[in-house]
């Protein structure tokens, strides 16, 4: 659902996909080839939220802020399932792990990776290419070229997903039996460990 609020209407590039079960409200600008998953809430009611090109905000994520603040999720930022971005700015091609919480006025540097369930305190400045884990979150090492290549490949899958959703996603009644010779999806992405073996 897309909601106008206080005369601010969200702007969504036609190449992007906002799932019908997501909620985008108010002063939100969504660039090209972005994916917004079901259950995501992007609330530009108290400030502006900009998603630059190629950003994905996955299922059940929240993006919001204190009144009067504005934030940017820079190009190719990747926000994993259930994460909360509250008044924080995300750098280019960074990864926010599942169920991580990034608090107000924090800044995540370009190509950084924040681990699943990490808690990044308000006003924390994470340098670029940092691997961040824990509660409270701490930088534990630098992101290697191989790690960022793996992350980038995963984000590219999400950048292809909007077009696939526009082409093929549709509400249907479920089948009542499993069809004979039912296929499964192709393995197009490896875990980091398997990726590093090659």
Strand content: 25-35%
Average per-residue pLDDT, rounded, comes to 96
Main structural class: alpha/beta
Cα-based radius of gyration, to the nearest Å: 17 Å
Q: Largest beta sheet, briefly?
A: 9 strands, parallel
Share of helix among residues? 10-25%
Tell me the number of helical segments per DSSP (H or I, 4 or more residues long): 2
The H/E string reads EEEEEEEEEEEEEEEEEEEEHH
Query: Which stretches are poorly predicted, pLDDT < 50 over at least 5 residues?
Result: none
How far is the first residue's CA from the last residue's CA? 42 Å
Number of strands: 20
* Broad shape: globular
What's the oligomerization state?
A: single chain
Write the layout of secondary structure elements.
Layout: E1 2-3, E2 11-12, E3 17-18, E4 23-30, E5 35-36, E6 41-51, E7 56-57, E8 62-64, E9 71-73, E10 78-79, E11 84-86, E12 89-90, E13 95-96, E14 101-102, E15 107-108, E16 113-114, E17 119-120, E18 125-126, E19 130-133, E20 138-142, H1 145-168, H2 192-197
Parallel strand pairs: 1-4, 2-4, 3-5, 4-6, 5-7, 6-8, 6-9, 7-10, 8-11, 10-13, 11-14, 12-15, 13-16, 14-17, 15-18, 16-19
Antiparallel strand pairs: 19-20
